[in-house]
């Protein structure tokens, strides 16, 4: 008999890349024998959301987009599955009791629903890194106060979590995040200047959502992950290191005081990290490719180039400050990224925009309330828009 049976689970952002992989993992781990699905949430793709809700017999399906309510309702007619729409409904459904929440909404839009889920206690499988980048201290406190367990889904942080023994925490010298370098790893600045969203989204190793794929190309994804790591593992800014590793096999490492470096390795398939979080504290079988070291033959590492990828330098600045610095970095980045996707801003101008917003807002408070975070995010977006 499986150790995992009838755990209640909600998947926020079920229709996205992480969400679809999560439902695949749920099915692989035994489906209805292993999990009772509480809430599934999505946004515009209500056809997929309804199909997913029927497949797992969810209690409720919520679209964040109010205009899609009737489509969702119609698609679920006669199933007994509740249909709901809008921001309020999303937050309400996210807060329903569950043993595990997969938090996989993209962007700052995920913060409030994820906080609502955190208030439940239980396991918080966190893919939405923006919660930690924008509101790290608050978010960690919310999980802790509710007696919950925070498990990182992001592959790098999941790797670190796997090799960081809490009993040896004081002997940690460095957290080493690996970065693939993205599709423009070898590009000059001149070459990068003209790239489009269509080329930027083509990640060499991972299949992911549109925004995180482009953030990987600009290395803003790694920038966010540096801030994410600081909050998750409570280390000093100078203990967070980035190393470019084009094969994406070593998912990250922890360096200890005795000279040992522990790494987690695996295929570039998010189901390993998702499965780890869903099976925790056990491990489940996952239908991913197995590493064949004879075939791999070679693992490369190189120093990141902050001149070509200024996002990393901006992350260092955000790390140096507490308070709302992360919210400013992320808010400005989300606006710049949307503008790049729409063809209104060049690839290199994304980092320039974020840098100018960070400079303009450089007097951060050292601690921040949720209201401070939301205000800083709004101001950063406003300033970034004004620069476009
Ligand atoms: P995605 O774009 O594929 O999916 C995003 C999900 O969020 C969808 O279900 C969408 O309907 C929902 N959503 C979008 N806007 C929303 C809004 N305003 N309100 C409510 N819901 C909304 O994204 P993804 O690649 O699955 O990434 C999800 C999160 O996980 C991101 O924070 C990303 O950084 C993180 N992450 C993803 C991967 C990956 O492999 N895809 C890896 C590590 C971390
Ligand atoms: Mg990652």
TrEMBL record:
Top-level taxon in the UniProt lineage: Bacteria
User: Which keywords appear in this protein's UniProt record, sorted alphabetically?
Assistant: Isomerase, Isoprene biosynthesis, Magnesium, Manganese, Metal-binding, NADP, Oxidoreductase
UniProt binding sites for Mn(2+): 154, 156, 225
Binding of NADPH, residues: 15-18, 43, 45, 128, 130, 209
MF terms from GO for this chain are:
1-deoxy-D-xylulose-5-phosphate reductoisomerase activity; isomerase activity; manganese ion binding; NADPH binding
Amino acids binding 1-deoxy-D-xylulose 5-phosphate: 129, 155-156, 180, 203, 216, 221-222, 225
Q: What Enzyme Commission number(s) apply to this enzyme?
A: 1.1.1.267
Q: Which cofactor does it need?
A: Mg(2+); Mn(2+)
| Residue ranges occupied by any 1-deoxy-D-xylulose 5-phosphate reductoisomerase C-terminal domain in the UniProt entry | 150-233
Residues annotated as domain DXP reductoisomerase C-terminal: 265-382
What InterPro entries does UniProt report for this protein, alphabetically?
Answer: DXP_reductoisomerase, DXP_reductoisomerase_C, DXP_reductoisomerase_N, DXPR_C, DXPR_C_sf, NAD(P)-bd_dom_sf
Question: Which Gene Ontology BP annotations are present?
Answer: isopentenyl diphosphate biosynthetic process, methylerythritol 4-phosphate pathway involved in terpenoid biosynthetic process
Q: Which reaction does it catalyse?
A: 2-C-methyl-D-erythritol 4-phosphate + NADP(+) = 1-deoxy-D-xylulose 5-phosphate + NADPH + H(+)
Q: In which pathway does it act?
A: Isoprenoid biosynthesis; isopentenyl diphosphate biosynthesis via DXP pathway; isopentenyl diphosphate from 1-deoxy-D-xylulose 5-phosphate: step 1/6
Query: Which segments constitute the 1-deoxy-D-xylulose 5-phosphate reductoisomerase N-terminal domain?
Result: 9-136
Pfam families the UniProt entry points to: DXP_redisom_C (PF08436), DXP_reductoisom (PF02670), DXPR_C (PF13288)
Family statement drawn from the similarity comment of this UniProt entry: Belongs to the DXR family.
**What does this gene product do?**
Catalyzes the NADPH-dependent rearrangement and reduction of 1-deoxy-D-xylulose-5-phosphate (DXP) to 2-C-methyl-D-erythritol 4-phosphate (MEP).
* Protein name per Swiss-Prot or TrEMBL: 1-deoxy-D-xylulose 5-phosphate reductoisomerase
Its gene name is dxr
């Amino acid at each position: 008999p499986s150790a995992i049976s009838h755990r209640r689970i909600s998947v926020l952002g079920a229709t996205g890349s992480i969400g679809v992989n999560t439902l695949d993992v749920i099915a692989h781990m035994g489906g209805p024998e292993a999990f009772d699905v509480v809430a599934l949430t999505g946004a515009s793709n209500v056809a997929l959301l309804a199909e997913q809700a029927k497949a797992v017999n969810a209690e409720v399906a919520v679209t964040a987009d109010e205009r899609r309510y009737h489509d969702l309702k119609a698609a679920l007619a006669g199933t007994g599955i509740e249909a709901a729409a809008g921001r309020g409904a999303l937050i309400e459904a996210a807060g329903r009791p569950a043993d595990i929440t997969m938090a996989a909404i993209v962007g700052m839009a995920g913060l409030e629903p994820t906080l609502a889920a955190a208030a439940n206690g239980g396991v918080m499988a966190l893919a939405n890194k923006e919660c930690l980048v924008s509101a790290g201290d608050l978010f960690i406190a919310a999980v802790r106060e509710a007696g919950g367990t925070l498990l990182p889904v992001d592959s790098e942080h999941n790797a670190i979590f796997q090799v960081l023994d809490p009993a040896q925490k004081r002997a940690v010298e460095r957290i080493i995040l690996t970065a693939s370098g993205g599709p423009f790893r070898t590009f000059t600045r001149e070459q990068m200047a003209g790239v489009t969203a269509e080329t930027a989204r083509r990640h060499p190793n991972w299949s992911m959502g549109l925004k995180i794929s482009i953030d990987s190309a600009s290395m803003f994804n790694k920038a966010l992950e540096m801030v994410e790591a600081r909050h998750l593992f409570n280390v000093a800014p100078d203990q967070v290191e980035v190393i470019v590793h084009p094969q994406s096999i070593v998912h990250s490492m922890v360096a200890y005081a005795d000279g040992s470096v522990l790494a987690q390795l695996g295929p570039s398939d998010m189901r390993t990290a998702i499965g780890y979080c869903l099976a925790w504290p056990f491990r489940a079988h996952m239908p991913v490719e197995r590493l064949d070291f004879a075939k791999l033959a070679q693992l490369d590492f190189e120093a990141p180039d902050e001149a070509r990828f200024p996002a990393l330098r901006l992350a260092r600045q955000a790390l140096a400050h507490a308070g709302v610095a992360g919210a400013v970095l992320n808010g400005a980045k989300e606006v710049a990224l949307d503008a790049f996707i729409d063809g209104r801003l060049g690839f290199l101008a994304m980092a320039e925009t974020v840098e100018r917003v960070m400079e303009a807002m450089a007097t951060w408070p050292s601690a921040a309330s949720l209201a401070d975070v939301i205000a800083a995010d709004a101001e950063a977006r406003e300033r970034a828009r004004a620069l476009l």
